[in-house]
Protein: DUF2214 domain-containing protein
Amino acid sequence: MYPEPTNIWESLEYSSFGTMVAESTWMFPTLETLHVIALVTVLGTIFVVDLRMLGLTSNKFAVTKTSNDILPWTWGAFVLAAITGTLLFVSKASSYVINPYFLWKMAMLALAGLNMMYFHFITYRTVSHWDRDATMPVSVKVAGALSLIFWLLVVFFGRAIGFTLGMFY
Structure:
């Protein structure tokens, strides 16, 4: 039996679902496996687009064509990663919210999202001018480089979480 929750994080963790995920012999590892597969898919597809934006690969293909072909896979995998990540979070919520690596991972996800929003709502409006060019404008390269950096940091901090749970009480 768990103690009476004193905050929202403990309420999530001590809920019947949180307890089930944490104590099940198969549920946490299955969710973690699906989370990693989804994250690898997100990263792989984003890297293809980012490397094209940097002008390093696929220069024969239009940015719009590359994006249209790949981004549905990215979004599907991102939704799966978000769902599985949330379910994993519930199992140890009070440990995650005090872990600096978890907080940095969330910050990098937010920055990756803001970078993507800025790119799509501002920079992408001029795509017709540079869509098929091998050399991309500086703003496109900056967006691609920042995306690569933010997503690599998401992976780094996410991996560090598993090695540091329980250290920050």
User: Anything to note?
Assistant: The chain has one domain: 8-164. The chain has a mean pLDDT of 93.
